[in-house]
Amino acid sequence: MLRTSLRIFSRWGHRVALTLLALSVCLYLNTLWDYLQVYRNEDGIRQKQRFEEVAAGEMTNQKTWLMIGIPTVCRKNENYLSSTLSSVVNHLRGVKGVSVVVCVCDTRRECRENIKTNLTRTFLPHIKSGLIHVIETPGKLYTPLSSLKRTFNDSEERVHWRSKQNLDYSYLMQYCANRSDYYLHLEDDVITVPNFIDKIQNYMESVNKPWAMLEFSTLGFIGKFFKSNDVEKLASLLRAFYNEQPCDYLIFFYLKIMLQHDRFFRIPSLFQHKGHFSSMPNLTRNITESFSHFPAFKKRFNSDNPDAKIFTSLSPWMSFKPKFAYSTSDNEMFWSTTPRVGDHYTIIFKTPQRLSRIVVLTGKAHRNFVDFLHGGVLVIGTDVKKIPQTDNACSNLTVVGHFDRGTVDVNVPRSPKPTKCLIIKVTKKQDSWLIIREIAVFIRVGGQ
After folding, report:
1. CA distances to 189, 217, 237 from 82, in Å
2. pLDDT (0 to 100) of residue 288
3. What SS3 state is found at 46?
4. Of 25-39, 207-221, 349-363, which has the strongest mean pLDDT?
5. Cα–Cα nearest to 334, from 365, 305, 368, 306
6. Is the pLDDT of residue 119 over 60?
7. Do 355 and 380 contact (CB within 8 A), yes or no?
8. What whole-number distance in Å separates Cα of residue 237 and Cα of residue 272?
């Protein structure tokens, strides 16, 4: 029996030993793999924690004067965020009490990581100092985007894009609310003018009416300036109606709710949009600020423009007031909604004038035939009738010119009586709005 057992062991023992050895090696390798997996996960967590610690910077609960919010996503063909932040940071040198919050809003994890990596690589000193603070939108924020209704006859893709944008802005504003005295909303594809903080403060001091929002750009949601303790209300509005309206439409309702009846635009603007590739996939656009330092809009003529009162039946858009057309200051113009046949823009001089020339320019500067007067006449009058409970009426009229492609430039014939008033009259139906960019009035030398 013993000999039989020895023979069996000698035949199979080494095989059993090898099998046990193999099992031991497999067990060891499996344990090593589990360890490496845990180590890799812990390393990833540590990297994420390091980013969060760096991103938090020196952010404290101490309230600042201004917080600038910039939402950002990956774009297919271009990254504008770095140049936007560079422009903002470079023009904040020496400025105290201002911080910038970048909100990473892309739903793709790889894009989020790329954005954060680029931020820490390029702006690490500013992040550590607390000038730049980085946050991310949580995934659960986008749960409502699974079933959207189409509004404004927009495509499903566009409805999804603008609905997500409302949620992004809402999250960013909610985060920034009450952390500063004021909140400025920018986008990730703009550049700023030098000393923009000083210009904001100066304009804010010049507004002598109650306000809920000041605007330092006429484009979309760029350059919108709020009191920080009001921002939470706007965030709630954007979140509540994220599907129904785009953000730049919802802002009209916000102003009505806040009892702000006028729009307060600073002209020229302080921010220029420069992105060619939209954050909406497969959309390109060339939208630039028309009334900004990029380039400045200058009046063409060095005219006399004597003191006068302005009356018009045209409806102004936002804060582009009728008097701006007659003003000789750069970057001021009158913008009205669609004119109707018979509408007028009337200038009544405070004292009668001997005129030599009148020039009227309509339409946008730097762009041909946009919002120009399609048909109209220029009329002068030598008398003014006072009509009770209404505007004064220009009378004893003479047509001196007809508009051609939105422009009239006429030499005023000599007349025994001086001119007391002049009228721009709409004579042709048009669908577009109307800009009266410049009215230049020249007084005859020597008054003759």
Report:
1. 9, 21, 30
2. 52
3. helix
4. 349-363
5. 365
6. yes
7. yes
8. 27
Q: For residue 400, give the nearest of 355, 363, 344 by alpha carbon.
A: 355
If you ran DSSP here, which 8-state letter would residue 414 be given?
A: P
The set of residues, in sequence order, having a beta carbon less than 8 Å from that of 112 and lying 6+ positions away, is: 104, 106, 136
The whole-angstrom separation of Cα 446 and Cα 354 is 9
Query: If you average pLDDT over residues 378-383, what whole number do you get?
Result: 95
Q: Answer yes or no: are the C-beta atoms of 401 and 424 closer than 8 Å.
A: no
Over residues 223-252, mean pLDDT: 90
Is the preceding peptide bond at 268 cis, omega within 30 degrees of 0?
A: yes
Peptide bond into 295 cis (omega under 30): yes
* CA separation for the pair 402, 384 (Å, rounded): 22
**Distance between CA atoms of residues 146 and 152, nearest Å:** 19
Core vs surface per residue 413-445: b (16+ CB within 10 A) or e: eeeeeebbbbbbbbeeebeebbbbbbbbbbbbe
Query: Rounded to the nearest 5°, which phi and psi values hold at 32?
Result: -60, -40
pLDDT recorded at residue 32? 44
Residue type, 297: F
Q: What is the pTM of this model?
A: 0.57
Res. 318 pLDDT band, cuts 50 70 90: low
Tens of pLDDT along 44-69?
444 444 444 444 444 556 778 999 99
Joined tokens for residue 291: 């009334």
Torsion, Cα of 167, 169, 173, 176 (10° steps): 110
The answer, yes or no, to whether residue 145 has pLDDT greater than 80, is no
Name the average pLDDT for the chain.
81
Structure tokens at 9: 């062991």
